[in-house]
């Protein structure tokens, strides 16, 4: 049930196809057409798959799968060590392509983002045409493929981008959304994980149409706060704006590794890469922070943070990296395996000064006309 005013945002969700694996196959001809996984361990001694090529996926290999299981499914699978610096560089080039059409971009990760093209920079007008142009530019300039979903809100656009992978484009317009949501399996709904999906199926709730039979009160009673979201989204209502700019309380960068780091040298090396990205973001936004925070997530998913505040704001990599290393080495690294590291800066400006606020697009005029 969409708004009767017919005022809709025009949202594109771009999702790169097997991003890490596709880059490796692009750069290494010997990997093309073969089952490869990025990350993990060829000997099956721990580690998980970060990305699997489509050839590997035919054997049932998926992201986050243990290396040992991947090897069991396909004896000829090729394990490739990740090159995060390359992936980040390619991701930046993809963002530059996005910016040719709109500055209202909400990155979700290195390989996917939402774009609001309600009023595009080139005056093209058609979200479908813009999605086609973006995909063609990625193909021509980067020799990679991307899938796109086009709709009136973020939720539907994201699901649409996954419908014709790889190298697909799916448009779900206003008139199709209600039926689309009714037919959608419950496990495809945002916020519905394996446990919740099983709970729903045990209640006889298999598709959106089943959820639609329940009142908002009933959904909240059964599923808590997410019930309010389920009530709206099953009716095609998702008012969340694409948010590239928010009140900047902190700026950070982090990486989740496809295998657990065990050596201090490896950890420091990764911190160096993270600090480089963070410096770029600080310079781009013209921000200097006085509090440096290190984030650590261990192999057992336990998470800790350590912070240090300075008397003056900084934005240079050398200072940030030095303090982050000190914070890391001050923790107990003995027999600890690390799966994620992150660095962030906060407390911008002078003491007592308000944090910088960027303008969002919540008040953006909505689109009226053709797709």
TrEMBL record:
Residues 11-193 form the UmuC domain. One of its GO terms (molecular function) is DNA-directed DNA polymerase activity. It is found in: Cytoplasm. It comes from the Bacteria. The record marks 20 as: Substrate discrimination. It catalyses: DNA(n) + a 2'-deoxyribonucleoside 5'-triphosphate = DNA(n+1) + diphosphate. The keyword Hydrolase does not apply. InterPro entries: DNA/RNA_pol_sf, DNA_pol_Y-fam_lit_finger_sf, DNA_pol_Y-fam_little_finger, DNA_polymerase-Y, DNApol_IV, IMS_HHH_1, Rev_trsase/Diguanyl_cyclase, UmuC. Residues 351-360 have a biased composition (Basic and acidic residues). Belongs to the DNA polymerase type-Y family. Monomer. This is DNA polymerase IV. It comes from Chryseolinea serpens. The gene is dinB.
